UniProtKB/TrEMBL annotation:
It comes from the Eukaryota. The gene is HAGH. Monomer. The keyword Ion transport does not apply. It comes from Apteryx mantelli. Keywords: Cytoplasm, Hydrolase, Metal-binding, Mitochondrion, Signal, Transit peptide, Zinc. GO terms for molecular function: hydrolase activity. Its cofactor is Zn(2+). PANTHER family: BETA LACTAMASE DOMAIN, HYDROXYACYLGLUTATHIONE HYDROLASE, MITOCHONDRIAL. Thiolesterase that catalyzes the hydrolysis of S-D-lactoyl-glutathione to form glutathione and D-lactic acid. The lineage of its organism: Eukaryota, Metazoa, Chordata, Craniata, Vertebrata. It holds the Pfam family Lactamase_B. This is Hydroxyacylglutathione hydrolase, mitochondrial. Residues 61-223 form the Metallo-beta-lactamase domain.
Length: 310
């Protein structure tokens, strides 16, 4: 049942003490093992006829995503912070890696670019910020590019960083849902910190740009923050049943080491407080009547939020 083996048992004992470990329940044990041995986070493949997305857990709570065009077997990697893991996945799937899609310049997303282009030559490296390592193609809002037969549309979503890009992926004439890679702009049930932007910019990013995508679009975000985000969402809207149900589901996923990614744009509108700033319930919690002022207020509150244990 528990992954991790003796190495992580040793680490867990050192961190907790034998007594605490013996008193811990299965969920707590799983948490201890995952935190001390985060290699145990499981990967996952979302397979459609036209495109495949392999979720590759990286660092403590980041995700890299291998995007495969099934028609040509060409592939792109989103935020390859751990290049060797990327090349292992490329080999496993037998695909040709041609493209790097960088969401933003922060180290936990762009920090593997330089190494990856040395290990694998000829890659096109896309990003919206000159601070992105090994950048070969600087993109702007609505720049289009191709990965095999897939269309990728770049969406400028400044706020977390000024050069943040989300990548929207569609297959021409397909009836299957599109995918969007949202980096640190939109998380499942949350959003990124406003390091280089304003509440107005995050409103434009979440509501006007990402919120206008097809509702069934799969959302692949930069971090596994879902449980903490939903605990904040519950604090904002204690009577929202969608939040309670998603939190119970996310806890079960976490306990078995599985990702809570992807969600959909339609789902985000039901439980993500930052996508719900036009709702009276969220505005009342913030003591505001304007959606952009509400955005600013709940982001500030989350910056200082102490996440409860349950
Ligand atoms: N609160 C984060 C701390 C790390 C952090 O600040 N992460 C950045 C992205 S690298 C962020 O924007 N987090 C959004 C948030 O804390 O709501 C966590 O849940 O571990
Ligand atoms: Zn970031
Ligand atoms: Zn990040």
């Amino acid at each position: 049942m528990l992954g991790g083996g003796w190495r992580s048992l040793g680490t867990a004992l050192a961190a907790l003490g034998t007594g605490a470990l013996l008193r811990a329940g299965p969920a707590q044990l799983r948490a201890v093992f995952l935190h001390t041995e985060h290699e145990q986070r499981k990967s996952k493949t979302v397979a459609q006829v036209d495109m495949k997305v392999e979720l590759l857990p990286a660092l403590t709570d980041n995700y890299m995503y291998l995007l495969i065009d099934e028609e040509t077997k060409e592939a792109a990697i989103v935020d390859p912070v751990q290049p060797q893991k990327v090349l292992d996945a490329v080999k496993k799937h037998g695909v040709k890696l041609t493209t790097v899609l960088t969401t933003h310049h922060h180290w936990d997303h762009a920090g593997g670019n330089e190494k990856l282009v040395k290990m694998e030559t000829g890659l096109r490296v896309y990003g919206g910020d000159s601070r992105v390592g090994a950048l070969t193609q600087k993109v702007s809002h609505l720049t289009s590019l191709k990965v095999g037969s897939l269309n990728v549309k770049c969406l400028c979503t400044p706020c977390h960083t000024s050069g943040h890009i989300c990548y929207y992926v569609t297959k021409p004439n397909s009836s299957e849902p599109p995918a969007v890679f949202t980096g640190d702009t939109l998380f499942v049930a949350g959003c990124g910190k406003f390091f280089e932007g304003t509440p107005e910019e995050m409103y434009r990013a979440l509501i006007e740009i990402l919120g206008s995508l097809e509702p069934e679009t799969r959302v692949y975000c930069g971090h596994e923050y879902t449980i903490n985000n939903l605990k904040f969402a519950r604090h904002v809207e204690p009577n929202n049943v969608a939040i309670q149900e998603k939190l119970a589901w996310a806890k079960a996923k976490y306990d078995s080491g599985e990702p809570t990614i992807p969600s959909t744009i339609a789902e985000e509108f039901t439980y993500n407080p930052f996508m719900r700033v036009r709702e009276k319930t969220v505005q009342q919690h913030a003591g505001e009547t304007d959606p952009i002022r509400t955005m600013g207020a709940i982001r500030k509150e989350k910056d200082n939020f102490r996440v409860p244990k349950d």
